[in-house]
Amino acid sequence: MKRYLFSYGTLLPKRAPAEIAPVVRRLRRVGRGRVHGRLYDLGEYPGAVLSKSGPVIAGQIFELPDDPDVLEKLDEYEGFDPSRQQGNLFVRKRRLVSIDNGKRVWCWIYVYNRHPGNAPSVAGGDFSKLRSR
Question: How far apart are CA 94 and CA 117, in angstroms?
Fold first, then answer.
């Protein structure tokens, strides 16, 4: 069974830092996608807060290779420990993501697990359009 990741920030190929870039290069791009929610600019990275309706977060959908180490390395990079959901800065959740062709696919997405406070929202929900950092 194919597994997918919806990436909206530093897991995008052109935004991936050196420590995760080799893993990101192993992902196969499926296409652009979007999910309901708000994207916040947290400084070095964005954070997604999902919703059932309203504004959308734009990103890319990637097929994960058939290698459990890839998801484990992504979890490690995002600071996600499945055994302790409450303490994580990001949690990995499955959500239906709309593809630009109108179809929807279940994807893993790393969701910000805190209140964004005074962090500004990303206009248009598209982190890839922010200046390079």
Answer: 24
Tell me 53's DSSP state: S
Global model pTM greater than 0.90: yes
Q: What is the pLDDT of residue 5?
A: 98
Which tokens sit at 55? 């504004």
Q: What pLDDT, in 10s, does the model give residues 8-66? A: 999 999 889 999 999 999 999 999 999 999 999 999 899 999 999 989 999 999 999 99
Q: Read off the amino acid at residue 32.
A: R
Residue with tokens 């916040």: 40
Query: Which residue from 100, 110, 86, 101 is spatially nearest to 37, judged by alpha carbons?
Result: 110
Residues facing residue 37 across a β-bridge: 50
Domain ranges of the chain: 4-129
Single-letter residue type at 73: K
d(CA 8, CA 32): 10
CA atoms within 13 A on the CB side of 113: 17
What would the two tokens of residue 66 be?
């058939």
**CATH assignment, 4-129:** 3.10.490.10
Question: How far apart are the C-alpha atoms of 89 and 113, rounded to whole Å?
Answer: 5
